[in-house]
Amino acid sequence: MSAQRSQDEDDPDEISAGPSRKRHKSAHVYSNNISSSLQLSQQEQSASSGILEYVTVKNFMCLDNMMCAFSPQINLVQEPQALYKFFLKATQLQQMNDDYNELEKALKVSLDIIEDRKEIIQIEKAEEDAKKQVEGHEKNVAKIQEKVAHFQEKYEEQQQIHKGHHEQLTTVTNQLVTHSHKLKECNESLIKTRKLHKDKQMLAVTADRKVKGIMKEIYVLKEAIKKDNDDTQTQWASHRALWQEKMDGIQNEMKELEQNMRTEETHHVNLMNTVGVKKAELTQFVMEEKAIRRHAIEQELQGLKGQQSNQFTVYGQWVPQLLHEINIAHKKRAFKKKPVLRQLMKKINFGQQPQPIVIVSRFREQVHDVSKYEVQSDKYPSLWSMLMISSDVVANTLIDQCQVESTLLIPTAQEAGQILKNKTTVPRNCKVAYTLNRDIYYPDPNYRLYSGRGQQPARFLQVSLEEKVRALVANLENSKEEMRTHNLEMQKSRANLHKLEEEVQASSRKLTCSKKKMDQLRLQLADLQNQEEQPPPDVSQLEDDIKQQEVALIEAQASLEKLKEGVTSSKDSFMQISSAYEELKKGEKKLFQEAENMKEKLSEDEDILNKLSHTVELYKEKERDFQKNKKESELNLEKTREKLREELQKAGKFQPRKDTVRSVHEVKRQYDGLQDRLNREMAANGDPLTVANRYKEIKQRFITVSGEIESHCNLIKKIKESLSLRLEHYKRFRRLLAIMIKSNFKISLSIRNLHGSLNFDHDNSRLTLSVVKMGSETDAEAINILMKESQNKKQTLAMMSGGERSFATVSFIIALWDVIESPIRILDEFDVFMDIVARRQSLTMMVKAANTKTQYIYLTPIELDTTGLPNINVIKMPDPQRAMQ
Fold it and tell me: Using CA atoms, how far apart are residues 285 and 293, in angstroms rounded to an integer?
């Protein structure tokens, strides 16, 4: 225990006498639980009294504000509502608020009493208004019902008109469908007739060309007979040889060019396919895979760094929760030993991590004898021989599930391949082998190899969280290196793709030039074929050809005449069908216009029906509203009558009610007569002065009470104004206290290079505490930039570690002490979760924050180094007597 005092309070007598000279206005006492009634229990009071007597603080019960005590349970206050309540009670704002609420309630009660006096006078007036309102509602309901019936009749009439229009539209639609079928049939017949007519025309044109060709052939044959001689034959032979030579040259060149074009087209197609493959390779496959892997590693790394205080998270973030559930089940005696049950596993939320494999094995208290099945190798060890397992259950599980006795450990892949490829060199009982690179080898006769690259390293059988973090950081760096390599490969692929596209363009240009050249050669070949000269014919043969052509001419002319007659008949048939088609088309257009007109009428009818239906619904809704208002008015009238009956019953206690049909004037005149009679009776039977004095007294009392009520109303008005002003001052005082606490809190946190903020939500009674690590930057601009970047990384008390939460709580308490008036301040176990540096910084900060008019007492179970800290007395309490408890 350590206690701090100022220099002018070293004498114990001054400590006890000091508070008696200066009394404070209110007391601040805080227990371990903020939600309690804020009173120290009897045990805590006795413990506090003993501590204060031990440090020479006596007679503190005479003080109004004896001490301000905080315990470490404040660290458990994490809800914003509880923190705000703690702030209000620490700064006396809660008491001010309670006083204000009590005064406001008293004011409301006074106003209610005054208002109740005026209700009886307004009851009869309210009854008359209610009657008038009910009668008005009845008239409105009758009018609305008449309008609803009128519009309902219009709606039914419009429905009949709409039905007639709909029937007409159906008839026109059926006619239009029938007409469309006829038009379709006519159109098909017209197309057939047009095709037949064109075919006959083509045959006639072909026959005419044939006749002309035969006539030309006869003319050519006759001319050839006249020009037949030996010189013509010789000249034809020389021209024929030259022509054949040109034809052969062009054909050879075309063949060669065609072969080149086929080769170039094949090359072009291959280039296009290659370009497509390269473009597909440049898509998002590898990028997405790498980005997802990197994001997952960063999330896991961040989660592990944030939970370094829990060593069990190295086996998965769900392991602590699972162990907690198992401990709860074990405490409830659900089983004799602690197994991993299926129902317990279902309660765990694994998040994005893969669910663990549940291993079920028969329980044995002895380890299996695996000597017969263990792999036998002189050079390489087995996995079973490398493991040191203290639990028999774990050892049996590894034997049953993983066959660790048949697993061989080989350092390099070359040695593993040499040993396991050949059946003769495979060690006995070896079923699988692992290398240092996590490669998996299955021996011959089913030799297989699975690369360990890209696989996750073992997350179990580890005891250090830092090693796990380093491994994840290494994986993250490898992933970044792979991303850079992938980017270089993508750049190379883009360059290759650019080259391929240039080659494709060159190939396209080459193919275009080849095609142009081929077209030119074809034109030259066609010209040569057209320039071919016919050999000079034999005269006798020519005469026979002329006779044959003349016979063919006669037959062709006869056929041409028949075809011309058929063309004429098909033309007449086509004209008839075409005219019928035009008439049907006009009829269809007319029917279509009629259908459109009917649709417009139907649309108009539907609009009218919708409007009428909407009007009817509107008036029905109004009728329902009026009925509802009528019922409400009747209920109000009944309530008013009930109140009136109650008041009449109260009045009947003094004088029974008399029913009359006379006017007020007559009743007043009768009242005057009765008053005269009363005066006569009093004159005859009593002293009128007594009655007059009593009347004056009552009148004077009435005037006095009226004046008191008026003054009371004025007082209430002034109290309202005072309350409003007091509320404004209260809010201003609360805001100033919040600003002072925020400033002191930030100053205290800056000692540990932290930046914190207190968010006061006075409307919702919430106080949120947030802390951000600043790093090496200290200027205001850097802090603002850091706060913007870390906006999503703020830590509340629930998210902090134990040491950070204790330091933040100490900073918050010191900020509160600056606005609290108390001669004695006690802080119990402030450094429970702190490390040495934080404890030293906290103690230095509390020493600097101390003033000369207050005594500070700090209770701690840990030894403190107070070297270099002035004005500190360290008092060590005697060890408790354990045997006496």
Answer: 13
CATH of 120-227+539-651, one of 1.20.200.10, 1.10.287.2610, 3.30.70.2740, 1.20.1740.10: 1.10.287.2610
> What pLDDT digit, counting tens, does each position of 186-243 carry?
777 777 777 777 777 777 777 777 777 777 777 776 776 666 545 555 666 677 777 7
Helix (H) or strand (E) holding 448: strand 448-450
What's residue 795's pLDDT? 54
> Alpha-carbon distance 341 to 361, whole Å?
12
The residues of the chain scoring below 50 in pLDDT are 1-45, 48, 51-67, 72, 229, 463, 776-779, 786, 789-794, 885
Fold of 359-458: Alpha-Beta Plaits (3.30.70)
Supply the pTM of this predicted model. 0.32
Q: What is the pLDDT of residue 77?
A: 55
Question: How far is residue 144's CA from residue 872's CA, in Å, rounded to a whole number?
Answer: 91
Task: Give the distance from CA 871 to its chain's centroid.
Answer: 57
Contact assessment for residue 644 and residue 131, using Cβ atoms and an 8 Å cutoff = no
pLDDT for res 635: 81
Check residue 720 and give its pLDDT.
Answer: 82
Residues 6+ apart with CB under 8 A from 529: 247
Q: Which residues of 526-554 are buried (b: 16+ CB within 10 A; e: fewer)?
A: eebeeeeeeebeeeeebeebbeebeebbe
Q: What is the DSSP letter of 428?
A: B
Contact 432, 407 (CB under 8 A): yes
CA atoms within 13 A on the CB side of 371: 1
Helix (H) or strand (E) segment spanning residue 666: helix 664-685
Q: Give the integer Cα–Cα distance in Å for 22 and 63.
A: 9
Domain ranges of the chain: 1-78+801-878, 120-227+539-651, 243-316+472-536, 359-458, 664-711
Residue 821: which of 67, 88, 95, 8 has the closest Cα?
A: 67
Tokens standing for 495? 């360059």
Distance from C-alpha of 634 to C-alpha of 528, rounded to nearest angstrom: 116
- Cβ-based neighbours of 831, under 8 Å, separated by 6 or more: 806, 838, 839, 842, 843, 860, 862, 864
Task: Give the integer Cα–Cα distance in Å for 740 and 816.
Answer: 9
495: amino acid identity, one letter: A
- CA 739, 744, 746, 747 dihedral sign is positive
The pLDDT tens digits of the residues spanning 283-302 come to 655 565 566 566 656 656 66
Tell me the C-alpha distance between 29 and 70, whole Å.
8
- DSSP state letters, 354-402: PPPPPP-----SS----TTTS-B-SSS-BHHHH-----HHHHHHHHHHH
